[in-house]
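Structure ticket #2291
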Amino acid sequence: MKLKLFLATVIMFCLTPILSVHAQDEYPHGEVYGGYSFANVGASTSFFGSSYGLGNINSPLGFQVEAEGNVNKWFGIDGGVSYNTKSVNYNYNSFGYNYGSSTATGSITIVTVGPRFTLRYGRTSIFGHTFIGSMSVSGAFDGYAGSESAFAYGAGGGIDVDLTKHLAIRTVQADYVTASKFGVRVNAVRVSSGLIFHF
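Resolution: structure written out below.
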């Protein structure tokens, strides 16, 4: 009996480092993220070597969805889509009279794919990614509407904290995205937070 107990103790002592390393090497093979997003979007153009701002849209609200497949503990490929929109009402008043109102609406849709690099430490994961894709900007005002799409690229990162084996919270993700078409450059900074499902 004492021999069996001694052998069991030795076996557990030898397996503990192996099991510990295996646990540390575990990582989710896939992740799906969904969260609330807001963005700051600005446009500019160049003329004879000088840059001119064309206006900003501050804090249009929306959502962001991403899916990632992990090749190993630190490298994966992610793809995602975000949509942000904002509406502003204009009232035409003069000398105390209201001559009507109009609504201006703007939206931006960004679709991306690219590599992602993750540093995992306990329940916390810090990641950075670069990506390419497309940016679509649309607007409507007083019955007129238009939209344009262009090649986009950018980079960003964020911090995730595991709640359970299959659920985590993305405390923050921040990305910088830029696109250019017909001499007009659109820059967007988007920030989001939400939940992640591991599988």
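Closing remark: The domain at 28-198 is CATH 2.40.160.20 (Porin).
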